[in-house]
Amino acid sequence: MWVIKHWFSASTFVVKIATFTKPENVGCKCKKTDKPLMLIKDRRHTEFLSLLTLLILTRVADGILTYKITPDLSRELNPLVSIFGFGWAGLIIVALAIIIPTVILSYYNIYKPFDNFPDKNTAYSEFKKFYFNAANPTLKSSSGKIIIHTLGYIVPRVFILWGIWVIIHNYFVLTDAPTYKYLRIEYKIWIIGYLLPSILGVLLSNPFLKREYTRYINAKR
């Protein structure tokens, strides 16, 4: 798993129109041919906007709950605050520094996917070995593009899922839930928040490879 150790092919639609085709026929053929392309574009737009919306909402919700818990950040455990002394302005700048590159990575993954596919027909088990194999010639020549494509799938989803965990954590802290308070004090389960991104990154590599394999199979048809 090369990328973990570090972190449709779009179909080409060729519309052939006869020289003396009537305008009505031309319009009809174009509509039929463009429909699958429009569906692909719609799915891409939906995925991108959904990820963008969830990414922003989870960050905003985290900020609001944190402000309600500790307006002066005196209870904030974030090392940026507790160790480096960041205030709200610093935290907002860091949040933007995370969101903007994440959105860019997501854009490239969705709208400019990179095909790291084997030439011969391959089963999924072999495809997984091929994708991040150091002997993969595409990996050698285009490692940067493969990293961007891979991170573009994994990073937005990691931040969204991690953000949901942070929101749940902050909500229980805000409401002073007795059971959660006990778990925080006795078992320090807040540490999960620092381990979760790495765990999610590893877990999300599998659905990423399954999606890539689906793109590979569709490209072979």
Q: Your description of this structure?
A:
By secondary structure, the chain is an all-alpha fold. The chain has one domain (2-7, 48-220). The chain has nine helices and no strands.
Number of helices: 9
Q: Give the fraction of residues assigned to helices.
A: over 70%
Measured between the Cα atoms of the first and last residue, the distance is 27 Å
Tell the overall outline.
elongated
- Could you name the ranges where pLDDT drops below 50 across 5 or more consecutive residues? 1-32
Cα Rg: 23 Å
Mean pLDDT score, rounded? 86
- What number of domains? 1
Largest sheet: none
Percentage beta strand: under 5%
* Strands, total number: 0
What class, by secondary structure content? mainly alpha
Order of helices and strands: HHHHHHHHH
Task: Please describe the structure with a list of short key phrases separated by commas or semicolons.
221 residues; mainly alpha; 0% strand
